[in-house]
Write a structure and sequence with these properties.
With 313 residues, this protein is an alpha/beta fold. It contains eight helices and twelve strands. The longest helix is centred in the middle third of the chain and has 21 residues. Keywords: NAD, Oxidoreductase. It holds the Pfam family NAD_binding_1.
Length: 313
């Protein structure tokens, strides 16, 4: 994934041993990361598809934290969902950000968007990633070698996030996802639900507006997190809505999904009623989709400062 560059990259690895105790597995991770860098932090790799190279100008935290796999489930036929326990209390992230994913013995560093809410990390010290099967070494490892108690290391990065302060003005969100681009947007959606819950329980915190999710995939089986998304629309009626779009559906859509699924791509007609000044637009998907939706929003009169995007590759 990659989004517009805003911050310069900090040093790839902090030298202090207080960040992570030195051990053989961590030394392997450090070596893997350093293989991509020169002394001044520029990337040596010539592969344009390399995560570190694509995100070289994105914000990154300096801290690298150890994590242990504590849960593995199949989100679909091609996507595994990992739950990772992070003991480091300094480890934090904002809804929508990604992690550099360091694997002992794997020279390539992965880049995966976090699909859980910051609240899960705060309450249980855990986060989740949903990784699609590909031949890329980190994703291949997740699908073929990763097991419970596997140890990895993580570093948070990314300029694409939703992190309002309590005093900020209320805003409405439109989230537009394509394929596995749902991952950071699902994190944002879960964070929105947490904000609503805090308002309902305590009457404190950020006053969240409405959130409308538009999610496009080839078919209904590839709509990740669909049951959880529908659960959120039921839990927060009128505050969270969803519209699923399928572009290559070959089988009959199951009954419980039918009211929410439309055939065909997301169009201007679907989005035009949400175009007003306080709406923030978050888009994540393949580059052609980002370009198409961004142009569509521009034609609808949406200000560029209200559009945030991240491309996955």
């Amino acid at each position: 994934m990659i989004c517009a560059a805003v911050f310069a990259i900090p040093p790839l690895l902090r030298s202090s041993t207080a960040v992570i105790p030195i051990c053989s597995s961590f030394l392997q991770l450090k070596h893997a990361a350093l293989c991509y860098c020169t002394v001044n932090g520029k990337m040596k790799s010539k592969k344009k598809s390399d995560h570190l190279e694509r995100t070289a100008n994105d914000f990154r935290q300096e801290i690298i934290s150890k994590a242990k796999v504590c849960g593995i489930t199949s989100e679909s036929e091609t996507v595994k969902r990992l739950r990772l326990a992070v003991a480091d209390k300094e480890f934090t992230f904002k809804a929508g950000q990604w992690v550099d994913f360091f694997i002992p013995g794997v020279a390539v560093v992965g880049g995966f968007s976090i699909c859980s809410s910051p609240g899960l990390l705060e309450q249980e010290g855990e986060l989740e990633l949903a990784v699609k099967h590909t031949t890329h070494p980190p994703a291949h490892w997740v699908h073929t070698q990763c097991a419970l108690n596997s140890e990895v290391a993580l570093r948070v990065g990314g300029n694409f996030f939703f992190d309002p302060r309590p005093a900020d003005s209320p805003a409405d969100l439109v989230l537009i996802a394509g394929g596995v681009g749902i991952n950071p947007l699902f994190s944002i959606l879960l964070h929105v639900a947490d904000l609503h819950q805090k308002q309902e329980n305590r009457g404190t915190g950020y006053h969240m507006g409405t959130t409308n999710l538009f999610y496009s995939a080839k078919n209904s089986d590839e709509l990740l997190f669909r049951k959880h998304i529908l659960g959120l629309t039921d839990a927060f009626p009128g505050k969270i809505t969803c519209s699923f779009h399928v572009t290559q559906q070959r089988s009959e859509i199951c009954e419980n999904l039918q009211p929410y699924v439309k055939e065909g791509r997301i169009s201007g007609k679907d989005l035009e009623k949400y175009v007003y000044k306080k709406t923030l637009w978050y888009i994540c998907g393949p580059p052609p989709m980002i370009e198409s939706i961004s142009k569509l929003l521009e034609n609808l009169g949406v200000a560029q400062k209200n559009i945030f995007f991240e491309k996955w590759w």
